[in-house]
Design a protein that fits this description.
Elements (H helix, E strand, L loop, with lengths): L1 E6 L10 H14 L7 E6 L1 H12 L21
Parallel strand pairs: 1-2
């Protein structure tokens, strides 16, 4: 399952629409033999990501990526 959300009031240019983004993520998961995996992509602004980063990671300031595992680690390199 793939979910894409835009959680900001700011207007910004993203190089692809929601449909293209989902299709790209589906192809990546299939290539990694993870077609049944769940991916949630949230596009947000610096203020919101700074709050989330501090709340969940204990790190002040914005970041460009946060990830949260939903299952045990998978070795993608073997």
């Amino acid at each position: 399952m793939i979910s894409v959300y835009k959680e900001t009031q700011r207007s910004f240019l993203f190089p692809m629409g929601r449909t293209e983004c989902v299709a790209c993520l589906e192809r990546m998961l299939e290539a990694l033999d993870l077609a049944e995996a769940h991916v949630e992509l949230v596009l947000t602004d610096d203020a919101a990501i700074e709050r989330i980063n501090n709340e969940h990671m204990g790190v002040p300031g914005p970041t460009n990526i946060l990830s949260f595992p939903m299952q045990e680690e998978v070795d993608l390199l073997s």
